[in-house]
Structures are given as structure tokens and as C-alpha cells.
Amino acid sequence: MEQDEPGEQGVRDGAGPRPEDEPGSGVVTAFGRQLKLLRIRAGLERPEFGKRVGYAGQSVASFEQGRRIPPPRFIDRADEVLDARGVLKALKEEVGRAQYPAFFRDMARLEAEAVELCAYDTHVVKGLLQTEEYTRALLAMRRPLLDEETIELRVSARLARQEIFNRWPAPLLSFVLEETVLRRPLGGKAVLRGQLEQLLLIGRKRNVEIQVMPLDREDNAGVDGPFTVITRKGGEQLTYMEVQGRSSLLTDREEVRLAAARYGIIRSQALTPRETLGFVEKLLGEL
């Protein structure tokens, strides 16, 4: 009988992040069962299979039991070694989504498909724009406290979403942030400086517009809070809202139309993208 020996060593250490869904449930467990069946069919013990794919036997056990999320490179290599003919690779996208909190998984998929994304934020910098240090600082402030493994999982997942900036055809991306977001030194002044510098870099991309809503504005159509409008290929639009670990995805056409119109008004009330770059440079000079 195979056992999970805590002392096993392999080419790669660490078994990957834990799935955010409940233990023993979801696509991660289904993937693990399929992986084990294919490995047994191939006549390979965990240690031998682990050597062939470059992972410790203990890591393989964690993947098979659904306790850890296998990274894409493991899935690709396992599919080849086990001659699975694409069976494991077909699950790669769904397995990858399990790294996100359950309430965000639908939004992560929509982000990856978006041809246009418009986001208004009032409290913190949008996840797509965050530096690694800013993200880690925010997650460390969560209450109740998150364990270190969960923090690292979510940092990796958030940074992976930023692949949207490298996609082609390039999606159209618009962000409006309240001035207070850029003045709040979450994580310390060094973290804020790095975040502001990142905004300057991303804001100069041809398909990205970043705007600041100044504190001195007497009119602000965003008083109801943050939201994101996503446009998919074909023109379908949806609105995403999130608060206190809960999310809503609006699909009603009239509700989405109103949200898109509201975002248009917010953009018109904010500084222009060019003015915003100058504003961010001024803030950097004050730090």
C-alpha cells in the first residue's frame, strides 16, 4: 500500500497551493482521482512517477488526494508521461481556477475572456494593477488572519491575472481610482512608492487608461461604491461587484446598461489619463 512519507525528497519541493474550495470537493479532487487511475494503469509507483515528472512522491500524493493544486507544468508533464492523450491537459484551466477564492472564480474566467474591462475602485488599488508587495501587504491585513500558504497562493493568483496586459489582441482596459486610494500608505511608504511607479508604467500602455477621481470634485457618480463592467467577445456585457468576501455578477441587460452609463459619467468627472500620469508623478515627488 502506498503511503505519504513526510520525509520524501524530490527534484522540486513543495506540493503546490491548497485549493480554495472545501477539502475533498471540486474539480481538484476529480483531477486527483483521474491522475491516480492513469498512474496505476501505467504501473508506476508514486516515487517513480514523481522522478519522471520532476516532483516528490509526497507532492504527487497531495495532487492525487486533492489537497494541493497541481501547477500547469506538472499537468503537462504528467499527461505526457502517462500517455493520457490530453485527458489531464483538458482539465488544466478548471484546475487553475481553483486557486482563487470561490467568490472570485467566475470573475477570473471573465477577465481572461474580456475584450474590454472598466473598473472603478474606491478603497484599494485594483487587483490587476497591484504590485506583488502591495498585494502581500493587503492580504496580511485581512481579518480573520490568513495563513502564510494562503497568502502566497493568492499573491501568485493575483499576479497571474496580470497576463491580461500581455494578451493579443489587446483588450481595452479602463481604471478609475479615487484619490484616497493613491494616498493611503498601505504596507508603508516604500510599498506605496512601488505601487505608484507601477501605475505609471501600466498607464502608458496604449490599451490602458488610468484616471484619478480627485477629492475636490463636488460631483461624483460613484457614490454607490466600486464595480467593474466586462465586455465579452460578441458584445455581451456583465457587471461585477464585491464586498466583504461576497460577490455579485449582474447579467440583466438593463442593470448592466445602467452600470456602463454610470461608469461613463465617472470617467468624465475624473482627471484625464494624461492629467492622471502627472498627478501620480506629483504624488511620487511628495513621498
Write a brief structural summary:
About 45% of the residues lie in helices and about 15% in strands. It is built from 12 helices and 6 strands. α2 (about 45-55) packs across α3 (about 55-65) and α7 (about 130-140) runs antiparallel to α8.
Explain what the structure shows.
The structure is a single chain. This protein is α/β, with parallel strands linked by helices and 287 residues long. The chain has 12 helices and 6 strands. It has helices at residues 26-41, 46-53, 57-64, 72-81, 92-97, 105-113, 132-140, 148-161, 179-183, 189-203, 253-269, 273-286, and strands spanning 114-121, 172-178, 208-213, 227-232, 237-243, 246-250. Strands 3-2-1-4-5-6 form a 6-stranded mixed beta sheet, with helices on both faces. α2 (46-53) crosses α3 and α7 packs antiparallel against α8. The longest helix is centred in the last third of the chain and has 17 residues, at 253-269.
C-alpha geometry: elongated
In angstroms, what is the radius of gyration?
22 Å
**Helix content bin:** 40-55%
User: Could you list the spans in which at least 5 consecutive residues all have pLDDT below 50?
Assistant: 1-15, 21-25
Mean pLDDT: 89
Largest sheet: 6 strands, mixed
**Count of β-strands:** 6
Task: Outline the fold blueprint.
Blueprint: H1 26-41, H2 46-53, H3 57-64, H4 72-81, H5 92-97, H6 105-113, E1 114-121, H7 132-140, H8 148-161, E2 172-178, H9 179-183, H10 189-203, E3 208-213, E4 227-232, E5 237-243, E6 246-250, H11 253-269, H12 273-286
Parallel strand pairs: 1-2, 2-3
Antiparallel strand pairs: 1-4, 4-5, 5-6
Helix pairs in contact: 2-3, 7-8, 10-12
